[in-house]
Amino acid sequence: MTKINYDNLSKGEAFCINWQYRILKNEALELADAIAKADTGNRKVFDYFFPEYTQAITDYQSTKDWWPDVEVKAGLLSPNWRAGLSTRQQSDYKTKSGEVQAVASSDNYLQQEA
After folding, report:
1. Could you tell me which of 51, 27, 47, 25 has the C-alpha nearest to residue 38?
2. 76: helix, coil or strand?
3. Is the pLDDT at 111 greater than 50, yes or no?
4. In the Cβ-directed half-sphere of 49, how many Cα atoms lie within 13 Å?
5. Residue-wise pLDDT tens digits, 41-78
6. What pTM, to 2 d.p., does this model score?
7. What is the C-alpha separation between 37 and 93, in angstroms, rounded?
8. To the nearest 10°, the Cα dihedral for 98, 103, 106, 110?
């Protein structure tokens, strides 16, 4: 397993890393899960007592690219992850469009037979 670099992480980011990588145990894990499931009113209560953790989980759930950027800071994800994702998505699209065309061709064949 890759070593997590906590040096550049905020308290909330470290909490989120530990939550997502299943390092949190017992009460800490229950706290993270409760924050993640909380509605708006209850999230305000959590924010009062655990502001760093609540903000981190809120960012994890609702801020675009927040999580992969935290993983990069922790040394768990390549800094070039966006380029790799873009390449994989383009490759997947080509494969899927080829599969769809093959299915459509076989459907046309079956319709012609009937």
Report:
1. 47
2. coil
3. no
4. 7
5. 999 999 999 999 999 999 999 999 999 999 999 999 88
6. 0.72
7. 34
8. -160
